[in-house]
From TrEMBL:
Name of this protein: DUF2264 domain-containing protein
Organism: Mucilaginibacter pocheonensis
Domain DUF2264: 22-377
Pfam families: DUF2264
Superkingdom of this protein's organism: Bacteria
Length: 395
C-alpha cells in the first residue's frame, strides 16, 4: 500500500467516532487493570494494593475481589487474542499477565495465594473468576499448564464449604459449578438447578428478578443476576443438558432489562444513584454491555446508541477527580472519591466490578458496533425533542 494511502486510512480511522471511542475504552480498561495485574504477576498484590474499607476484615477477601472481578470484565476483550495491531499487541501483554495471575492466585506456595474458602465472601469472587474463564476459555484456560489448571479446579471446589445466601448468592455457587462442568467435566447439578429454579420463582415481571423473594431497587439484576443466570444456562446447554427453552426465556427477560438500562442513562451520561453497591460504578451496566456483546439488543436499539451511551457514562465517571489514587488504584465512590458510598462489605478490591461494563470490547474493531456515527440513546433523543418509539412492559 502506498504511504499516502496508508496515511489517509489511518487519518480516516482516527476521525471515526467508533474507533476513537474504542481506543478510549481500551486505554481506560488497561488503566484500571494495570496496577492489579502487574502487581499480581510479580507476586506483590498483597504487598502493593491499598485496602480502603470501613471494616478491618476486608484484607481476607479484597485481593480475590480485585482479580476475579477485573478479569471477568476483561475476558471477552482478551478472548479476541493477540495480533499485530497496536491493540492486539496490548492484548498479548494483558493475556500473559492474566495467565501469570491465575497461576499466582491459586498456587498454595505463592505469596499472593488467595482465600477461596475462609468466610463467606470467597464464593462471590471465585464466581467472578469462574465467569472470566467461561468468557475466555481459549486465552485464559486452554494454554495454562497442567499444575495451574489443577490448582484452579481445587480452588473452585474448595468453595463448596460455603453456604450461599438465599438470594443472588445462589448464582455464585452455580457459576462456579458451571465452570467445573466445562473445565473438569463435572459440576454439581443440584447447585446449578437450585439457583435456576429459585430465580424463575423470584421473577417479578418486566425484565426484573427479585434478589431472593423480595424485589430491591438496585442494580443487582445487572451486577450479578441476569449475566450469571444466562451464563450458567448457556454452559448447561453447551453440555447437552437441555436448557435451550429456559435459556431463551431468560434471554428475552434480559433483553427487556437491557432496554430499561439503556433508557436509564440520562442525556449527560448519568444514571439514578439507587440502591446498594453504587461504588461498583458503571459496572451497573454489565447486562446492557453483555446483551450488546452477544448481539441480542432489542430491535429498536441500535448498537451505536449503546456504544455512545456506555462511552459517555464511563468517561464521565473515570475522569472525575479522585476516582484513582496517586498510584492508579481505584478509590471508593460513584463519582470521584466518596468513601461514605461504600457499605461495610465494600473495599478496594470490590471496586473492580466496574470492569464488567467493558464487555463490548469483546466485539472486534471491525464489528458493526464500532462502525458508523454515534447515535443518540433514548433519553438524549427525548430531551432533544426528537420522536421515539413508545416503551412497553415485557412479560
Amino acid at each position: 500500500m502506498p504511504l499516502s494511502t496508508l496515511i489517509r486510512a489511518q487519518t480516516s480511522q482516527n476521525n471515526d467516532p467508533g474507533q476513537k471511542e474504542r481506543t478510549y475504552l481500551v486505554k481506560s480498561l488497561v488503566r484500571i487493570a494495570d496496577p492489579v495485574l502487574t502487581a499480581l504477576s510479580k507476586n506483590q498484590l498483597k504487598q502493593q494494593m491499598p485496602v480502603e474499607a470501613k471494616t478491618g476484615d476486608r484484607k481476607n477477601y479484597t485481593y480475590l475481589e480485585a482479580f476475579g472481578r477485573l478479569l471477568a470484565g476483561m475476558a471477552p476483550w482478551l478472548e479476541i487474542g493477540p495480533d499485530q495491531t497496536p491493540e492486539g499487541i496490548l492484548r498479548k501483554k494483558y493475556i500473559e499477565l492474566a495467565r501469570t495471575g491465575l497461576h499466582n492466585a491459586t498456587d498454595p506456595n505463592s505469596p499472593d495465594f488467595m482465600n477461596f474458602n475462609k468466610g463467606g465472601q470467597p464464593v462471590v469472587d471465585a464466581a467472578f473468576l469462574a465467569q472470566a474463564l467461561l468468557r475466555a476459555p481459549h486465552q485464559l484456560w486452554d494454554p495454562l499448564d497442567t499444575a495451574t489448571k489443577a490448582n484452579i479446579l481445587t480452588a473452585f471446589k474448595s468453595t463448596r464449604v460455603i453456604t450461599p445466601g438465599y438470594n443472588n448468592w445462589l448464582l455464585f455457587s452455580a457459576t462456579i459449578e458451571a465452570a467445573l462442568l466445562k473445565f473438569d467435566n463435572y459440576g454439581d447439578r443440584m447447585r446449578m438447578d437450585y439457583a435456576i429454579k429459585q430465580h424463575q420463582l423470584w421473577y417479578k415481571g418486566d425484565g426484573l428478578y427479585g434478589d431472593g423473594a423480595n424485589f430491591h431497587w438496585d442494580y443487582y439484576n445487572s451486577f450479578v443476576i441476569q449475566p450469571m443466570l444466562l451464563e450458567v444456562l448457556q454452559t448447561l446447554e453447551n453440555a447437552d443438558k437441555n436448557q435451550k427453552s429456559t435459556y431463551e426465556v431468560a434471554l428475552n427477560r434480559a433483553r427487556r432489562y437491557a432496554a430499561i438500562q439503556e433508557r436509564l442513562i440520562s442525556p449527560e451520561g448519568t444514571y439514578p444513584p439507587i440502591g446498594r453497591s453504587l461504588a461498583y460504578r458503571f459496572g451497573a451496566f454489565q447486562l446492557l454491555s453483555k446483551i450488546t456483546l452477544i448481539k441480542a439488543l432489542p430491535d429498536n436499539i441500535k448498537p451505536q446508541q449503546v456504544r455512545s451511551a456506555l462511552y459517555t457514562v464511563i468517561k464521565r465517571q473515570l475522569e472525575a477527580p479522585g476516582t484513582f489514587d496517586d498510584k492508579g488504584w481505584l478509590q471508593i465512590g460513584l463519582y470521584g472519591h466518596q468513601p461514605d458510598i461504600g457499605e461495610g462489605y465494600i473495599s478496594t478490591g470490590s471496586l473492580y466490578l466496574c470492569s464488567e461494563a467493558f464487555l463490548i470490547l469483546g466485539l472486534p474493531p471491525s464489528d458493526e458496533l464500532w462502525q458508523k456515527a454515534d447515535e443518540d440513546w433514548t433519553a438524549k433523543k427525548v430531551w432533544k425533542g426528537l420522536d421515539v418509539v413508545t416503551d412497553h412492559a415485557g412479560d
